[in-house]
Amino acid sequence: MSEEWLAVNRANWDERVDIHLGPRGYDLAFLRAGQGVLNPIEEAELGPVAGLRVLHLQCHFGADTLALAQRGAQVVGLDFSPRAIAAARVLADELALTDCARFVEANLYDAPSALPEPGGFDMVYVTWGALCWLPDISGWARIVAHFLRPGGRLYLAEGHPAALVLDDTTHCADGRPGFFVPYFLTGTLELNDDRDYADPEARLVNARTDEFVHPLASVVTSLIEAGMSLDWLHEHDSVSWRMYACLAEAPKGSFRWPDRPWLPLSYSLSATRR
Asked: Which domains are assigned to the chain?
């Protein structure tokens, strides 16, 4: 397929970096204090990473990458945004973590060329709003397997594709989100949305994005076909961002349905390279 999606999405994410590092963006206080925290889902599931070589795919400006480094991992963060990678390197230097965290600028599908370390990692780490930017989920799974040593594992936490069928742009009569995109959509979903999920006051100039729908079965099957074995799969009634306006904020930056858990908002899985 055309790589127009890549240029469009890169421009959007380049612009978001300054917003996310701004006063209404990400809260980096714990990270700057030497105690970076992850979402409660990862905190409960990830386990110790001290001594592990970790590859963080689609790392943005590296906040979680550096949190893993603070826990004793040797981490490589990879992202396609030059502005994000430049910011990540500055932040790593500020936190004196350059000995245990480095950053590589590359499109995910070019990662094997940009980072020639096949089988060089104990863990691949992918979280929160990563897969919707990728047109080829089977190619993503092969890259995950490419970088893992035999016995190494993937940790993935993502917005649930069943929840992403809904959106606030189409409201139900009671104000809840309505149907937005089919679960089994194929091809590109072209959106024009100038809002930012971290800073509600920000407005993006590069508002267009090209996104992709990946049903849960496609993600799991692609990993199995790439040589991975599924260890476990969890579905959650919380998510790490306000996916819908009606969600209620829970402790530690999570968001949940305000009354009953109508459908899963996120999922996580662990898979091991055979």
From this structure: 4-273 (3.40.50.150)
